[in-house]
Amino acid sequence: MSVAKQRLITDLQRGGITDERVLAVMASIPREAFVSRTFVERAYDNMALPIGFGQTISQPLVVAAMTQALDIGARMKVLEIGTGSGYQAAILARLARRVFTIERYKMLSRDAERRLLDLRVHNVVFHVGDGTKGWPPQAPYDRIIVTAAAGEMPMALVDQLAVGGIMLVPVGPDPVNQTVERVVRTEHGITREELMPVRFVPLVAGALPTYEA
Ligand code: SAH
Question: Catalytic positions (predicted)?
């Protein structure tokens, strides 16, 4: 393992990542493959980096902490909203049976798909569209992770969670200060719990304006 990567793994452990499977997967996925050439030198810095279209690849500690909190089992079906670079999807794919990931920018989705094929990750299904609606054809999901900040709890996604399922979603109208909430679906309804403060790009509902699509 490179010195930079080793340092990042140590940072993750210091930041509270104790799940050995999560640490092993974070060590196995080359983050430099998910950033533009301009930022390769900083691929193992513990920070979010730009990926174009005003979007970012999330901070490694946040990726690891959310992945750990998802508590993914090997037979699970996972839905991710906000494919971005595909980095989080690659990590989920190594832990779950199948991952469905939705991105509103076609270009980001295509680039992410190509990266995962290059890494021989084949259990991810990519969709382009508005992820706030989820992906009903494959519902219910054992786990759902939203990697963009929702102004309020996206109820369409809650409805696609299996009983006993867990969803992690950053919630808050503030553009620089949101809270990851853990939603657990029970037989009778849902429970909500605040986990950690984060800063994500916004989850934007609806179709892209044509000049952006
Ligand atoms: N998980 C990504 C980081 C995502 S950044 C990674 O590992 O790199 C958040 C992403 O959510 C952006 O790419 C943004 O375009 C996307 N996004 C925002 N609103 C969305 C929506 N309603 N549906 C699907 N994707 C959305």
Answer: 58
